[in-house]
What we know:
Largest sheet: none
Number of helices: 11
Distance between the termini: 37 Å
Helix content: 55-70%
Structural class: mainly alpha
Number of domains: 1
Number of strands: 0
Shape: globular
Radius of gyration: 18 Å
Amino acid sequence: MILDIFQKFLIMMIIFVPLEHLLPIHKKKALRSHWKVDLGYALGVVFITSFGILSLIVVSLIISELFVPQTLKTWVSELPLLVQISAIMIIADIGYYWIHRMFHEVPALWHYHAVHHSIEEMDWLAAHRVHPIDQIMTRGVSLIIPYALGFTPAAFASWGIFFSLHSYLKHSNVNIPFGPLRWILASPIYHHWHHANIERAFDKNYAGQLPVLDIIFNTAIMDRDAPDKYGTDHPVSNHLGWQLLNPILKRTEN
Length: 254
């Protein structure tokens, strides 16, 4: 597992560092402020997050055995691979949308999610700055139903590779024109608007992958140009340890 995480990190670095240099949304220094904090998330905190998500997957498999008919799981597992991957994406992103929205709208949860929004310079490494409780809930809980339904390991592996690559891409400082595809899949500029510290962008573009969810629920900003200001006015420490502890302490105070 440790080797897999390091290999994935190196592959993403090899892909996105040159792309951000060649096709930047915003011109900036190669090493932006607080990059070491996000490196700590990428190579340290990720183990806590992965353990939490795996625990929820185990829960979903138990739910599957207890409550989901075997005939349904067999039918799901026999669907064509592309259909399974598409179904996982749709089901998971519906769950992600609502849990993500909850982390914005429930004050006690916003303390955790504000860590992610404290990023003031977007790039591929920024994808890692997520409090483990936030990540476990948004990603892990959104996968309970897909795992319970019995999609095949090949479908989850394929979707997982795509999800991971897309997560880096949408946070990255890479200006790739999506054209009509921007209505189907969240582009970097689309997700950058979610991180914009501009009033009209607050609580917008919740969807992880499918902008249609934001369009349906009237939370979409579809601007073609990227915002020029990122971050949050919510006070968040620039030290990794305090980013992890403060939301828990704030929750205890409440």
